[in-house]
Design goal:
Elements: H1 2-13, H2 20-29, H3 31-40, H4 45-55, H5 62-66, H6 69-79, E1 98-100, H7 107-113, E2 119-123, E3 127-132, E4 135-141, H8 148-158, H9 168-178, H10 190-204
Parallel strand pairs: 1-2
Antiparallel strand pairs: 2-3, 3-4
Helix pairs in contact: 1-2, 9-10
């Protein structure tokens, strides 16, 4: 499946005017194999960019570089892990924050079946949909994906919602380190303290 996505991506890019939305969608679907390719690359780091551009010339377009914000959003919960696992029906913890819709997937049906009611960003081939619980709040241009964490935090603040347990460490770190908001003493959990300590060590490097 991943190989087919890559092949289709290369065929699209050979066109004189490739459909950038289709390219972006395929990049999202093909992310895992691309990351494996990059990680397995034996070249020195300073030579890696050239190798990746040879395989993915679409990264010469700024929108496809910033489009990897979706992958970053998916990775954030594992970078600041919470001790509580996500509900089985949810799948990964990142699904508490963002979900990439399949072409045949209806957003309203997805929201009705979602096992938690926290704010979420739904991504389709052209737009972002911001929803809280089963309510679709607004449609946003896909270029705003890099703002998604702050948009979600805005929803938690506006509607005074509780963080999902599976991403509470991540959202608490964003609250204190990005938004510079205080945190209640009861929320100073071991996982939060560990994440803050590791973040502090990282920022010193």
């Amino acid at each position: 499946m991943q190989a087919r996505h890559y092949k289709t991506l290369q065929e699209l890019w050979k066109k004189t005017t490739p459909n950038q939305q289709d390219v972006g969608h395929l990049l999202d679907l093909e992310f895992e194999s691309r990351r494996a390719f990059i990680d397995s690359c034996s070249l020195k780091e300073e030579d890696r960019t050239e190798k990746v551009i040879e395989a993915y010339p679409c990264f010469r377009e700024h929108k496809h570089v910033t489009g990897q914000a979706i992958a970053l959003m998916k990775a954030l919960p594992s970078m600041f892990p919470s001790p509580t696992a996500p509900p089985k029906k949810l799948g990964s913890a990142s699904e508490a924050l963002i979900h990439v819709l399949e072409p045949s997937e209806d957003p309203n049906t997805f929201l009705q079946k979602r096992p938690i009611t926290s704010p979420v960003i739904l991504v389709d081939s052209t737009n972002l949909l911001l929803a809280v619980g089963k309510i679709s709040l607004m449609t946003l241009p896909k270029e705003m994906i890099h703002e998604a964490p702050l948009i979600l935090m805005g929803c938690f603040y506006t509607f005074h919602l509780t963080y999902p347990k599976c991403v509470t460490t991540l959202l608490s770190v964003i609250q204190t380190e990005v938004l510079k908001d205080s945190i209640h003493e009861r929320d100073l959990t071991h996982s939060y303290k560990k994440a803050i300590a590791e973040w502090g060590e990282f920022t010193k490097k």
